[in-house]
Design goal:
- Keywords: Heme, Iron, Metal-binding, Oxidoreductase, Peroxidase.
- Residues 1-29 are annotated as: Disordered.
- Residues 1-23 have a biased composition (Polar residues).
- Residues 117-332 form the Plant heme peroxidase family profile domain.
- By secondary structure, this protein is mainly alpha-helical.
- Helix content is 49%, strand content 4%.
- The chain has 10 helices and 2 strands; from the N terminus they run E-E-H-H-H-H-H-H-H-H-H-H.
- It has a two-stranded antiparallel ribbon with strand order 1-2.
Length: 332
C-alpha cells in the first residue's frame, strides 16, 4: 500500500458628561506558533472498467469509495494551506495592533496630565454617546471632530487639540483613526488619575460626517428619562450609574478634580446641593442629583460608595462597552 504524507508548518510572527459646557480585546498578544503535521493515506488509484452487464456492483462500489477518499484528500489541501496563511496574517495583524496600541498610550501620556484628564474623558462620552440602537446610528466613530461647534460640545476643541499633537506623532509611524485615538486617550486619562487600567481594542473606522444632533443625554433629565436614554444606547441602569462616576474628575465638586475614585458616590449620598447656599449648592448637575432620588440607581450608588474596587471593575466594563458602541471595524 502506498502512502501520501503532507507536512505543513508555519513559523510564528509575530468623562461621562451630559450636554454641558463644563469640563468635566485590547488584542491579547498571541505568539503561539501553529505547527501541524497532517498525514493522509490512500490506496493506489484504480482504473475501473465496468462490465456491460451491471452484475459487478461490488466492484463499482469499491472503486467509487476509493475515488471519493482520494478526492476528499486532494480537496482538503487548499483549505489546510489557506488556514495556515490566515493564521499567520492574523498573528501579524495582532502584533501590529499591539505595537500601535502601546505607541498611542505612550504619546497620550506625554500630553494628558491630571489637569487635562477630565476634558479628554468628556471627549470620549460626547463621541460615543450619540449611539442609538434604533437605526444603529452614531457611536464611537470620531465624528466629534465635525461637531465641535455644537453648544453641548463647548470646550472640547481644547481637548481635541491636545490629542491632535499625540495623534500626529502616532500617524508618522502608523495611521490611526480618531475613534481609536480618543477611546485609548480616555482610558489613559482615567489611569493617569489613579483609576483602573482599561484595555482598548483597536480597529475602529472614522465617520466622514457628523452624527445627528440631539443624541446626547440632556443634563436636565430626571432619573426615568436618563434610564430610558441609556437603554436606547444599549446601556443598563447599573452601567448608567457606573459611567456617571466619571464626574469624580473635573470641576463638578465631587472630591479632588484630579483623582479618579469613588468620591462621586459618597458625596451623592450627602446631597450637599440641598444646603441653604454657598459652594455646596453648586455641586453636580441636575442629572447627578436625579440619580440619588431613584431607588434602582440608589442601590448601585450605595454599593459603589462602599466598595471602590467594585466601582473600578464595573466602570472598566461599562467603558469598554461604551467605546465599542456603534463602532465600524476594519477587516484584516
Amino acid at each position: 500500500m502506498a502512502s501520501l504524507t503532507i507536512l505543513s508548518t508555519t513559523k510564528p510572527s509575530s468623562t461621562l458628561s451630559f450636554t454641558t459646557p463644563q469640563e468635566s480585546k485590547f488584542p491579547a498578544k498571541s505568539q503561539r506558533p501553529f505547527s501541524s503535521t497532517v498525514k493522509f493515506r490512500a490506496t493506489p488509484f484504480k482504473v475501473c472498467v465496468f462490465p456491460s452487464n451491471n452484475n459487478d456492483n461490488g466492484a463499482k462500489d469499491d472503486c467509487f469509495s476509493t475515488r471519493r477518499s482520494l478526492l476528499v484528500c486532494i480537496s482538503t489541501l487548499p483549505f489546510l494551506f489557506g488556514f495556515h496563511e490566515m493564521e499567520d496574517l492574523s498573528a501579524k495583524a495582532l502584533q501590529s495592533d499591539t505595537n500601535t496600541y502601546m505607541l498611542i498610550k505612550e504619546e497620550v501620556r506625554k500630553v494628558v496630565s491630571k489637569g487635562k484628564a477630565a476634558g479628554v474623558l468628556r471627549l470620549v462620552f460626547h463621541d460615543a454617546g450619540t449611539f442609538e440602537m434604533d437605526g444603529n446610528s452614531g457611536g464611537m466613530n470620531g465624528s466629534i471632530v465635525y461637531e465641535l461647534e455644537r453648544p453641548e460640545n463647548s470646550g472640547l476643541k481644547k481637548s481635541l487639540k491636545i490629542l491632535d499633537k499625540a495623534k500626529g506623532e502616532v500617524d508618522a509611524i502608523q495611521q490611526v483613526s480618531w475613534a481609536d485615538m480618543i477611546a485609548v486617550a480616555g482610558a489613559e486619562a482615567v489611569s493617569v488619575c489613579g483609576g483602573p487600567t482599561i484595555p482598548v481594542q483597536l480597529g475602529r473606522l472614522d465617520s466622514l460626517e457628523p452624527d445627528a444632533e440631539g443624541q446626547l443625554p440632556q443634563e436636565s433629565l430626571d432619573a426615568p428619562g436618563l434610564k430610558q436614554s441609556f437603554k436606547r444606547k444599549g446601556l443598563s441602569t447599573q452601567e448608567l450609574v457606573a459611567l456617571s462616576g466619571a464626574h469624580t474628575l473635573g470641576s463638578k465638586g465631587f472630591g479632588s478634580p484630579f483623582v479618579f475614585d469613588n468620591s462621586y458616590y459618597k458625596i451623592l449620598l450627602e446631597k450637599p446641593w440641598k444646603s441653604s447656599g454657598g459652594m455646596s449648592s453648586m455641586v453636580g448637575l441636575p442629572s447627578d442629583h436625579a440619580l440619588v432620588e431613584d431607588d434602582e440607581c440608589l442601590r448601585w450608588i450605595k454599593k459603589y460608595a462602599d466598595n471602590q474596587n467594585m466601582f473600578f471593575d464595573d466602570f472598566k466594563k461599562a467603558y469598554i462597552k461604551l467605546v465599542n458602541s456603534g463602532a465600524r471595524w476594519k477587516s484584516l
